[in-house]
Automatic annotation (TrEMBL):
Pfam families recorded: Nramp
Keywords: Membrane, Transmembrane, Transmembrane helix, Transport
Superkingdom in the source lineage: Eukaryota
This protein's name: Uncharacterized protein
Keyword Transmembrane belongs to the record: yes
Chief place where the protein resides: membrane
A GO cellular component entry from the record: plasma membrane
One GO process term, biological-process aspect: iron ion transmembrane transport
GO MF term (any one): cadmium ion transmembrane transporter activity
Ranges annotated as spanning the membrane: 38-62, 68-88, 95-113
Protein topology in the membrane: Multi-pass membrane protein
Compartment list: Membrane
Length: 136
């Protein structure tokens, strides 16, 4: 449901050149309806929680599996990384984009280093990349 709302918000922003918050503020100001405004705020907060909760739990589980850390350490790490990414936005989006490109580059290098250790069948890899599947 939250993804559907996000798609609708993108369409609204594209066609109306306004965000959902701007449209709601304009509409609710005309109606002078606090109940609708608080309900919309509640739905927005609930959607954020529903979409972010699996990510936070996933990071906790991943840190437990990879490093043997307790789950709560992974959850705190998730909080710290999110806050640090948000703090870099103060310096501009290009800094944040550069950090993300750096992380993707590190993962790509790690993938190819790992593949060199395993030495998989190169023909099967190419078939998988070209066709999207390989019969086993």
């Amino acid at each position: 449901m939250s993804i559907y709302v996000q798609v609708l918000c993108v369409r609204l922003g594209y066609y109306a050149q306004q965000t959902l918050a701007e449209v709601q503020a304009k509409e609710f100001r005309q109606q002078r309806s606090n109940k609708k405004r608080y309900f919309a705020w509640f739905v927005a907060e609930f959607s954020v929680i529903l979409t972010d909760l699996p990510e936070v739990i996933g990071i906790g589980i991943a840190c437990n599996l990879f490093f043997g850390w307790p789950y709560w350490v992974g959850v705190i790490l998730s909080l710290l990384t999110t806050m640090s990414f948000l703090a870099t936005m103060k310096f501009g989006m290009q800094i944040l984009e550069g950090i993300i490109v750096g992380f993707v580059g590190i993962m790509s290098i790690a993938l190819f280093v790992e593949m060199s250790f395993v030495e998989p069948d190169k023909e099967a890899i190419l078939k998988g990349w070209i066709y999207g599947f390989v019969d086993v």
